[in-house]
């Protein structure tokens, strides 16, 4: 949005000097003027970029976005930080970040050194580094000698820590036009689909009276947890073996951590194999604790194989943790199953996937690596020029290799590969052996959810559609209690009503000598305390979406949605704009009335697609459901993950990753192909119509030809008959006169007995009758 620059409404404007000052950076060519603060709010009250119910709470003019060397205005709303360029007021995406998406921020001071042109020492520069949960690190610069930075920090703390729950933007905006239908109904509809009861639809009355307890030959839906008395982090409805009673389920739940007993997440419609999930068993340090009810429940997943009378299916128990971690948990009462107690289990395997703390540190190292070696860095220095150029372009091969190795040292891609390998193993057991698999980790809501949901994605093509993806997320992530508020670091809307604000720290890593080119100085930063150890934040869900992007790279035609859809979906989740992912469980969301008070991200994304149909950026233009209508079983050699360019590189390398541009071009080609196909179909319809017309004309011409031939033959016969009749009449002494049109007149006799008869050419019967009449007249004349 471009607005005229009226001097009376600018508080602190940036006026660039016309002269070029050698040896100085962006800071030193700026002059500041302090105007009346009363003109602030009127300047930006009608911005087009503001969302519904979004209001500006703080404004700060004359701020520098160090990453891109842009000067502009920093606006703080009840939802996000906005950065607008000076003059044009163009929104800068890199400098615009939702408040909830801020992981931490640090106040920094850059001390300047004496300039060779000036004897006085340069004043220190005041910086504010904002670290986001979406892979970006933003640095804002504030002019020395002002209290701008302090005001911005106070405003961020105030907006990030509202006094009331309802001050959160998701509640302030409300459901609006993106209302959230009862998520319990959608969960039941998914259960009905898995049980083969597709014709049934869940309703509010069905939930209230508990009439949703349906079953098939092997499995049933129980309402035992309808009040969340059995397990507070499980959904209200559970799918369990039909042979296990509710009393046995209650007893079995006491042997699992957090009472998260083994239940069914997905069942194969043909073979009857299931993927079940739970938390770790409470076997203790010596692994000598047992539960007959738990063992019976696990054994009930070994139903008979379809088509193999008397043959029991295999059962695998997959522990997502490293074996040593499982043994260590035994000291706290947990542990893993013993094959001697669970005799029906074929194997107990350990996938070796690390815990949430390792994932958090790995994600942080990856973010630092991308910021350090990206095109747009938080210190404003290109990776080509960092440290004299040795890091990338100016160094030797060993230095370059050392820089590249930092990506591997982050461990992020190794973690992705471990998850994909475990998922491929589970999918292969179910698809190729018709075996059932029980998956768990410690609590059964992090690594377990990743493995189970990805395995379902590989096995069931429905989950690779828009509707199926929503059902999968709502079933395995939301309903089964993944603690989103803790893991994504969102505010906790339950309990006291106070929120956890982003952690304020000083910078821990070595900051370069200058945030902008041509400025010399050294960073003065206080020792920092990491925010990671103070909460349970961990990018578990982001890691799961990253795994989906890897599968989409391997099978680009198997998914209805595109990588752009995943990016926009993650942005909605991290921004806390909608209420779907608030709280830590279904129970908490119900107690807070989230579905009634907040908007729905699924309705929002559906509305975006409805505007453009299949040509929308969220739709995969090369989706081929007929080709991939079965399970996806990636081989081990294909499980080599790479960085997800649309998400990981969009801030650090906004130009280099051309995946988005390629996708746009592919979409344009698909749209052109679709239009060409429509034109072809229209042309084919016209050709068919013309062919039909030509055939009809051909038949008409053939009929006309036949008629013409028949008429010609009739004419020949008529001529012959006329000649015969004419000779016959003339032989009787009559005169025959023919007209031009073929008619003839016959005159019989002279005098008073003269008579005249006209004979039409086309009436042969009349000619014959006239011949008879002529014979009669002749006889009369003779008698006379």
Structural overview:
With 784 residues, the protein is α+β, with helices and mostly antiparallel strands. It is built from 22 helices and 21 strands. The strands form 5 sheets. Strands 3, 4, 5, 6, 7, 8, 9, 17 and 18 form a 9-stranded mixed sheet that branches. Strands 12-13-16-14-15 form a 5-stranded mixed sheet, with helices on one face. A 3-stranded antiparallel sheet has the order 19-20-21, with helices on one face. It is extended and about 145 Å long.
* Bulk shape: extended
Mean pLDDT, rounded to whole units?
A: 79
Described by strand count, sense and barrel closure, the largest sheet is: 9 strands, mixed
From the helix content, strand content and strand pairing, which structural class follows? Answer: alpha+beta
Helix fraction? 25-40%
For the record, give the distance between the C-alpha atoms at the N and C termini, rounded to a whole number: 122 Å
Rounded to the nearest angstrom, the radius of gyration is 42 Å
- What share of residues are in beta strands? 5-15%
Instruction: Give the total of beta strands.
Output: 21
> For this entry, what is the oligomeric state of its chains?
single chain
């Amino acid at each position: 949005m471009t607005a005229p620059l009226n001097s009376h409404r600018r508080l602190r404007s940036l006026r660039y000097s016309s002269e070029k000052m050698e040896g100085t950076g962006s800071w030193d060519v700026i002059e500041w003027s302090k105007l009346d603060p009363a003109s602030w709010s009127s300047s930006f009250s009608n911005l087009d970029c503001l969302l519904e119910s979004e209001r500006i709470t703080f404004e700060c003019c004359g701020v520098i976005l160090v990453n891109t060397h842009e000067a502009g205005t920093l606006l703080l709303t009840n939802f996000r930080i906005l950065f607008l360029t000076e003059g044009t007021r163009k929104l800068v995406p890199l400098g615009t970040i939702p408040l909830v998406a801020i992981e931490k921020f640090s106040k920094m001071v850059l001390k300047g050194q004496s300039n060779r042109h000036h004897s006085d020492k340069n004043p220190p520069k005041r910086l504010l580094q904002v670290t986001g949960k979406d892979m970006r690190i933003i640095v804002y610069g504030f002019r020395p000698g002002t209290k701008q930075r302090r005001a911005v920090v106070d405003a961020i703390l105030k907006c990030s820590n509202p006094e009331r729950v309802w001050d959160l933007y998701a509640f302030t905006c409300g459901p609006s036009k993106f209302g959230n239908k009862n998520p319990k109904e959608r969960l039941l509809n998914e259960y009905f689909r898995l049980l083969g009861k597709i014709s049934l639809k869940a309703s509010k009355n069905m939930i209230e009276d508990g009439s949703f307890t349906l079953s098939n030959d092997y499995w049933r839906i129980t309402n035992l947890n309808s009040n969340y008395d059995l397990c507070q982090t499980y959904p209200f409805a559970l799918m369990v073996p039909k042979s296990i009673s509710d009393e046995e389920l209650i007893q079995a739940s006491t042997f699992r951590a957090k009472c998260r007993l083994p239940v069914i997440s997905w069942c194969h419609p043909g073979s009857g194999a299931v993927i079940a999930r739970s938390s770790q068993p409470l076997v203790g340090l010596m692994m000598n604790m047992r539960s007959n009810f738990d063992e019976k429940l696990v054994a009930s997943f070994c139903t008979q194989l379809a088509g193999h009378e008397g043959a029991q299916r295999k059962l695998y128990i997959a522990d997502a943790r490293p074996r040593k971690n499982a043994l260590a948990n035994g000291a706290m009462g947990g542990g893993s199953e013993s094959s001697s107690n669970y005799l029906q289990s074929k194997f107990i395997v350990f996938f070796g996937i690390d815990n949430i703390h390792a994932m958090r540190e790995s994600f942080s190292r990856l973010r630092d690596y991308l910021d350090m070696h990206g095109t747009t860095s938080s210190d404003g220095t290109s990776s080509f020029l960092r440290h004299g150029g040795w890091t990338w372009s100016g160094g030797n091969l060993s230095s370059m290799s050392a820089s590249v190795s930092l990506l591997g040292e982050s461990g992020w891609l190794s973690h992705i590969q471990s998850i994909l390998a475990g998922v491929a193993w589970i999918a292969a057991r179910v698809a190729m052996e018709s075996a059932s698999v029980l998956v768990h980790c410690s609590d059964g809501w992090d690594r377990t959810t990743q493995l189970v949901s990805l395995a379902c994605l590989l096995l069931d093509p429905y989950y690779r559609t828009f509707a199926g993806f929503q059902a999968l997320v709502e079933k395995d992530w939301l309903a089964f209690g993944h603690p989103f508020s803790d893991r994504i670091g969102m505010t906790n809307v339950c309990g006291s009503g106070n929120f956890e604000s982003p952690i304020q720290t000083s910078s821990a890593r070595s900051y370069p000598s200058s945030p902008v080119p041509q400025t010399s100085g050294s960073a003065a930063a206080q020792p920092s305390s990491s925010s990671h150890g103070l909460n349970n934040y961990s990018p578990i869900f982001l890691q799961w979406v990253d795994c989906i992007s890897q599968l989409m790279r391997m099978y680009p035609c198997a998914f209805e949605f595109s990588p752009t859809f995943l990016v926009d979906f993650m942005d909605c989740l991290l921004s806390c704009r909608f209420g779907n992912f608030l709280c830590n469980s279904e129970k908490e969301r119900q107690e807070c009335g989230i579905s009634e008070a907040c908007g729905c991200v699924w309705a929002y994304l559906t509305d975006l697609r409805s505007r453009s149909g299949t040509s929308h950026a969220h739709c995969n233009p090369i989706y081929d459901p007929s080709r991939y209508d079965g399970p996806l079983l990636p081989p081990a050699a294909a499980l080599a993950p790479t960085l997800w360019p649309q998400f990981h590189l969009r801030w650090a390398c906004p130009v280099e990753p051309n995946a988005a541009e390629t996708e746009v071009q592919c979409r344009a080609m698909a749209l052109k192909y679709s239009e060409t196909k429509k034109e072809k179909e229209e042309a084919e319809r016209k050709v068919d119509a013309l062919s039909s017309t030509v055939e009809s004309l051909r038949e008409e011409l053939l009929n006309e030809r036949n008629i013409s031939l028949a008429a010609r033959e009739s004419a020949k016969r008529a001529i012959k008959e006329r000649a015969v009749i004419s000779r016959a009449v003339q032989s009787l002494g009559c005169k025959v006169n023919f007209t031009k049109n073929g008619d003839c007149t016959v005159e019989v006799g002279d005098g008073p007995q003269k008579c005249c008869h006209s004979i039409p050419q086309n009436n042969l019967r009349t000619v014959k009758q006239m011949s008879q009449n002529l014979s009669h007249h002749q006889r009369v004349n003779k008698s006379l």
